[in-house]
Amino acid sequence: xxxxxxxxxxxxxxxxxxxxxxxxxxxxxxxxxxxxxxxxxxxxxxxxxxxxxxxxxxxxxxxxxxxxxxxxxxxxxxx
Length: 79
Description:
This protein is an alpha+beta fold. 41% of the residues lie in helices and 27% in strands. It contains 2 helices and 3 strands. The protein has helices at residues 4-19, 49-64; strands at 23-31, 34-41, 75-78. Strands 1-2-3 form a 3-stranded mixed β-sheet. The longest helix is centred in the N-terminal third of the chain and has 16 residues, at 4-19.
């Protein structure tokens, strides 16, 4: 099981890159080995948001939190 604090720490490191393009990200929930986030600002409706989320944030989370490596879909987006 992953901790909310550890997921939040990773999000806080990635957030400045997202904010640089006018977007933002918020941690909504951590349950078991999965996390839910909310994309905001310019990320809403952006065709690249999916890539940012899964190739950026999710890959960093998987590197730093081994429990996430076991999950097929470790990160979900809340609207």
